Amino acid sequence: xxxxxxxxxxxxxxxxxxxxxxxxxxxxxxxxxxxxxxxxxxxxxxxxxxxxxxxxxxxxxxxxxxxxxxxxxxxxxxxxxxxxxxxxxxxxxxxxxxxxxxxxxxxxxxxxxxxxxxxxxxxxxxxxxxxxxxxxxxxxxxxxxxxxxxxxxxxxxxxxxxxxxxxxxxxxxxxxxxxxxxxxxxxxxxxxxxxxxxxxxxxxxxxxxxxxxxxxxxxxxxxxxxxxxxxxxxxxxxxx
Length: 240
Description:
It is a multi-pass membrane protein. Belongs to the CcmB/CycW/HelB family. Its main location: membrane. It comes from Marinobacter koreensis. This protein is mainly alpha-helical. The protein has one domain. Helix content is 81%, strand content 0%. It is built from nine helices and no strands. The N terminus is likely disordered.
């Protein structure tokens, strides 16, 4: 019994931009659910990191409350990074990516649709899972709420920035290692402000400024990352 081939029908010229983005988004969701291991691996990795960290460092409640936000943010960051190699890889292998580049619709909008699908499938489940993991590391309720909010703002930034690295390393050998080297330095500001927001909330300090800065990161990422990713895809395809 052969596996069902992915839907790689091209978006025609008569289709509007919004409909083209919707088609790309829905196709990515359908393909992801046919390859469920790609959906489960980031979540299982995040759970394992959060579970093993107290066993390997210290199970004391005071330590976990102090370091819990950092543990969860690092676990979420690495989980998103783990899934980035599949953002364009399957489309590159089956020829769909070349069809997208040739479409009359702007490529950066189609890339944005793919990145939104990646976040819905990877980042959003991590946000939903965060309250359970927060209880595991003994975080108080208000810190868990702020942590979920920072991840809700920050994980789309991770996916958008990561799409640039995924596009640049497309088709290269050892792409996963190179992708990590390119993207992790760009993730550091998001990590710092994400954990800093939770630390400020736990001390009773106002967090509005932190959230505003993270919102600014998200706006900049949505505005600039799709253009950079689209340009990187064209370069990678021309060199393949």
